Amino acid sequence: MLKNSKYGIVIMMFILLLSMAGCDSTGTTVDKKSSSDTQSSTEQQKKSETKPDQTKVTETIKVYFPNDEGTKLIAESKKIKNSGADQYTETINALLEGSKDKKVVSIIPVGTKLRSVKVDKGIAYVDFSQEFIKKFNGGSTGELMLVGSIVDTLTEYPEIKAVQILVEGKKVETIAGHMDTSEPIKRMKDLLKN
Amino acid sequence: MNKKILFVFCILCILLVPTTYAANNRAAYKMNQFSYSILQTNKQNTALRIEIGLNKASNDFKVHIDPAAPKNLIIDLNDIGIGNIKHNISLDGTFAKDINFSQVNNNSKAVILLPQAVAMMQYKVYTMAADKKTKKPFRIVIEIMNKGLDFNVNGVQGKTIILDPGHGGSDSGAIGPDGIMEKDVTFAVAKKVQSMLESSGAKVIMTRTDDVDVYGVNASDRQELQARVDVGRRNPTANVFLSIHANSFTNPQAHGTATYYYAKSPSDGLLAQALQDGMVESGGLYDRGISEANFYVIKYSAMPAALVEMAFVSNPTEQDLLNSNSFQDKMAKGICKGLSAFFGQMRN
Questions:
Q1: Which of A113, B9, B58, B290 could make an S-S bridge to A129, C-beta 3.0–4.6 Å?
Q2: What residue of A is the nearest CA neighbor of B177?
Q3: CA-to-CA distance for A41 and A44, rounded, in angstroms?
Q4: Closest to A137 (Cβ–Cβ): which among B174, B258, B291?
Q5: Nearest to A178 among B249, B254, B295 (CB)
Q6: What residue stretch is flagged as signal peptide (chain B) (predicted)?
Q7: Is A142–B309 a contact, with Cβ atoms under 8 angstroms apart?
Q8: Residue of A nearest to B311 (CA)
Q9: Interface residue A71 vs chain B (CB under 8 A)
């Protein structure tokens, strides 16, 4: 009986220790709003922190969904796994997941898969499967909101200045016949106004 | 046996002939002349004039349209017999295909077959008194003309406008919940705008005059959009490039009218605002305002350019509007008013 309770206390202490460790790692959630000056240091900090246990480190990011009237983009906070270079992929996947908020619209066509996101010299190259165009029945508003949600979500990262949309690895001239998407697109600030 | 049948047949014929003859004769009035001509209504426009002469003046006629046969313009002529007029007469072919007369008892009916629904055309029916000098009897006159010709757009005389009906051919554009295609709506409105502008003295160049791809069926998206811009390049003195579209969004609730521009010069924004104001005033839909957009045709057109989104084909209510002749008329008039206002501002 006495032996058992001793064991019990040891086990409980061990569990407590574990949960505290868990708290510590989730507590490192980094807010991306931090100014670009401190960005590099926080990046480094993040990297060193992610090394011991990558899967448990999360990051809160901002993704943009169009409102139900298609007049502007609304920011939504999402938590993603922070696994270094793959944060861009995680970010777009968070956008692809859609939103539970009924006041916003999940605009990326159902069935679209993200092939890759690569960042080179300030330009993010986002590559989608063919459903991105084939399943999209958009007018000007739809096209602006679709492109805007991707561009404005990715340009939240200070190191990304513009976004080039690719479909099946190739540049596309337009998504729905209005926008010129043949060149990288800079942050679409007009869509964020209230 | 044979003789008997022949006898009965003869009796029947004798009985029948006078009744039909009498029917034609018992009517108080009788047609006695028919003619048609093409007349010049103003500088640019013509109309078809049909004249049905009567032996005596009568105003007892009524015009109606049968919803089951929307291309038929029907005139009921009460107590008027067909007389010696041919029952089926071919007409000019452009404004009307033919006219068919039929008579039941004392009343006749004239059915004019138009090339498109009567609602798409404009017509006038009136009477003209007998004219002794020209030896013309009292006449019932039917004039048929294209719609919108009476809408005068101020300040567009001498201007050149490039009209780009969005999408077309293999590219349907956005598709509404009932299958209404953007390409058809944009073309219908562009044709109306063309007619209104031309009748007001403007020169209109259409990027497409039918349901076709401008470049070709197998063209890349850029070739197709560039082909539309090229229409403007071939006409560098054109004053405005105007692309007409219907909007679409993932959420069917999205609604209203919007105009996009690419700010190459201050004129682009002015043009967009003038068009937007004209459409909102005329169509009465929610005003989504004007916005800058990186749209191909307005970006690469050298002259002031705008892309109008009349209403949402993805919204069930607005889809029905876009598909209706009356709303298409409103949009066309709104666009013309906008152009008129824009040229007015440019002059000042």
A1: A113
A2: A137
A3: 5
A4: B174
A5: B295
A6: 1-22
A7: no
A8: A139
A9: yes
pLDDT tens track, chain B, 348 positions? 567 776 666 565 555 554 555 444 588 999 999 999 998 876 557 889 999 999 999 999 999 888 888 899 999 999 999 999 999 999 988 889 999 999 999 999 999 999 888 877 888 899 999 998 989 999 999 999 876 545 678 899 999 999 999 999 989 999 999 999 999 999 999 999 999 999 889 999 999 998 988 888 788 888 899 999 999 999 999 999 999 999 999 999 999 999 999 999 999 999 999 999 999 999 999 999 999 999 999 999 999 999 999 999 999 999 999 999 999 999 999 999 999 999 998 876
Residue type, B78: N
Q: Is B264 on the interface with A (CB under 8 A)?
A: no
- Global pTM reads 0.66
Rounded-to-integer distance, Cα A162 and Cα A143, Å: 17
Which residue type does B33 have?
Answer: Q
Which H helix or E strand runs over B289? strand B287-292
- CATH value of B160-347 in 3.30.70.270, 3.40.630.40, 2.60.40.1930, 1.10.357.10: 3.40.630.40
CATH 3.40.630.40 in chain B is located at 160-347
